[in-house]
Each structure stands twice: as C-alpha cells, then as structure tokens.
Write a structure and sequence with these properties.
Helix content is 44%, strand content 16%. The chain is α/β, with parallel strands linked by helices. Strands 1, 2, 3, 4, 7, 8, 9, 10 and 11 form a 9-stranded parallel β-sheet that branches. A two-stranded antiparallel sheet has the order 5-6. Helix 7 links the parallel strand 8 and strand 9. It is globular and about 55 Å long.
Length: 340
C-alpha cells in the first residue's frame, strides 16, 4: 500500500512546496495538485515541488481536456517529467469546476477523455498526430522535444461511462471520494467491464482511493471539516448515488433545490449541515486516529485491490491541513510509510 496527497492549490505556493517536501520526508509516495476553478496554476506549483523533492511522484490530480488542450497537457507533462527526473504522472479527468468562468461547455466527457488520451500518448511516442474528434482536434501535432513514451496516465472517475473508459485505456484509476465497500464494488465492476472489453487484464490497472480526510481528536470538528466536500460529492454524484448505496437526505435536497443545486462554497456549506455523520463518512475519513484507522482498515480489507490511498487533507478551526498530513501517515496508515 502506498499513500498520496491531493492538494488544492489554495495556499501560497511556498507553503505548498514546503508541504510537498515534508510529505516526501514522511513517506508519502504520490503528490497530486488539483486543477480546479481559477486557483494557482498546478503545473507551476508542481514544477516548484519538483525542485524541492527527489523521490515523490508528481502530477495534476486532475487536469482536463476542456480548459487545457490535450496537446498542451502533453507538453506540460513531458516538461514536468524532464524536470523531476521521470517522476511525473498525469491525472486526467473531465473537470467541471472552472468551465463556467471560462465559457466552456463540458460535452461528451468520456469521449473527450478517450480522444485526449489518444492524442497525448501519440505525442509522447514521438510521432505526428492528427485527431479529428468530437471534442479534441489536432492537426499534424508533434512535440519539439523528446518525451517518455510510457509516462503513466491515471483517469479520475466516478460515473459508469468514465469508469469503464478508465478500465479500457488508463494505467490507473482515481476513484473519487468513495469510502465504502458498496461503492467500490460498483466501481470495480465498471472498471473490470471496460478492461475486459478492451482485452486488458484489470489486475494490471492501478487503483487509487481518493478520500477527504481530517484527523483530529475532536470528532465533530473533524467531520465538519470535510462536510462541505462531502456535500459537493453528493451533488456531483446524483446520477450514481443509487449505485453507491446513498439516498439524498430530504432536508439536504430541499436546501439544494432552493439554491438551484449550486456548487458555490456558501451554498454547499449551508446544505452540508444537514448531512448525518454516517453519510459524510461515505466520502472520506474523519475523526480521531483510532476511528480513522478503523475505517481505513475496513475499507482496505473489503477492497484489497486498492494500491494507493490519496487523501485530501483538511484541518479544523484549530489546526491546518498539515496536521492531518502528519497524523494520517503517523497514526492512521496501516503500515510504516518509509522509503526503502
């Protein structure tokens, strides 16, 4: 089992770089930087992290082919890989949080990812690529510098079509915010179906559990720290909540309907107050170290196929996310996360 961090670039870049260096020292093996909204540029942050680390793997978690042309993603990733000495990994998904601000329409997401992966891999292989797709277009594109052809691609997915596509084309899958055996049974079924249709062995696909996390002695404060993000996941997962074994609470639904199912921070934060603790825990791990370790152990026992747990760390009002970063690896991780 390997552990990773998913960091939204909301803090100053210097703080993010320092946290990456500390994460590497603590034994985290993967560092993912979110590409969402109009936050700090993830590739700039990752480049700075590359200069301050030597072993941890680095990548966007996840970027998308709508706000960034896949040819430019290929270029940025090849540059990052060159800079960090072959430690780069591409996290790719359909995105959605910054499209309104950019005037972008998020159409045919599974098709967009398939076309993006085709173009990116063609460019990394050193060839000239032309793609006339439904979403992605490129004509006689070619990288002007050498790239690593086998640079891995992890696809972030939760919906059935995207999970099946990930099984068909990706080196790994980042299953977003699913912390239950029931949810993982659904995800694994879709990934396996996609892999088998493509003639691939599902066992060769890396599986990452992407989980909101807050480790704090005050259990209520820890739950409240990840509650707005759990609420966001409820909203964005509505088409598959039945598959995840989740029923939307009546009060939450009423509050969100009054706000037009807005993902604005103030709207989901207000609605999240009505989410019961057991529902919040379906999307992450929160509480004291003993409770967090119990929940993590149960998940990994139920789903032994998971090869990486990537936490998105949160702090309470009294602590910052760095506290969760340190306590999770030291008090929650199921085995020592040391570099061999």
């Amino acid at each position: 089992m390997e552990y990773g961090l998913g960091l939204p670039p909301t803090a100053p870049t210097g703080e993010l770089v320092a946290l990456a260096a500390e994460a590497e020292r603590l034994g985290y093996r993967w560092m993912w930087v979110n590409d969402e909204r109009l936050e700090r540029d993830p590739f700039t942050v990752l480049a700075a992290m590359a200069a301050g680390t030597t072993r941890i793997r680095l990548g966007p978690g996840v970027t998308n082919p709508y706000s960034r042309h896949p040819a430019l993603i290929a270029t940025a990733m090849a540059t990052l890989d060159e800079l960090c000495g072959g430690r780069a990994v591409l996290g790719l998904g359909a995105g959605g949080t910054n499209h309104t601000a950019l005037g972008i329409r998020r159409e045919a997401p599974a098709t967009a990812i398939r076309e993006a992966v085709e173009l990116i891999r063609a460019l990394w292989s050193g060839g000239t690529a032309t793609v006339e797709g439904r979403v992605v277009t490129a004509r006689d594109a070619r990288l002007d510098f050498p790239a690593r052809a086998d640079l891995p691609i992890y696809v972030g997915a939760r919906g059935p079509k995207m999970l099946e596509l990930a099984g068909a084309v990706a080196d790994g899958v980042i299953v977003g915010n699913v912390a239950t055996a029931e949810g993982w049974e659904y995800a694994l079924g879709r990934i396996t179906a996609g892999a088998e249709r493509a003639g691939r062995d599902p066992a060769g696909i890396g599986l990452t559990a992407w989980l909101y996390a807050c480790v704090a002695d005050d259990e209520d404060a820890a739950l409240n720290a990840i509650r707005p993000m759990a609420a966001t996941s409820v909203v964005t997962s509505r088409p598959v909540l039945g598959e995840l074994g989740i029923e939307i609470p009546t009060e939450f639904e009423r509050t969100m309907e009054a706000r037009g199912w807005s993902l604005a921070s103030e709207d989901v934060t207000e609605a999240s107050r009505s989410l019961p603790p057991e529902l919040v825990r379906r999307f992450g791990i929160a509480g004291g170290p003993e409770a967090c370790r119990r929940d993590l152990s149960r998940l990994l026992e139920d789903v032994p196929q998971i090869s990486q747990v990537a936490i998105v760390p949160f702090g309470t009002g009294a602590t910052g996310p760095g506290e969760t970063v340190r306590r999770f690896i030291g008090e929650v991780a199921l085995e020592p996360a040391t570099w061999s």
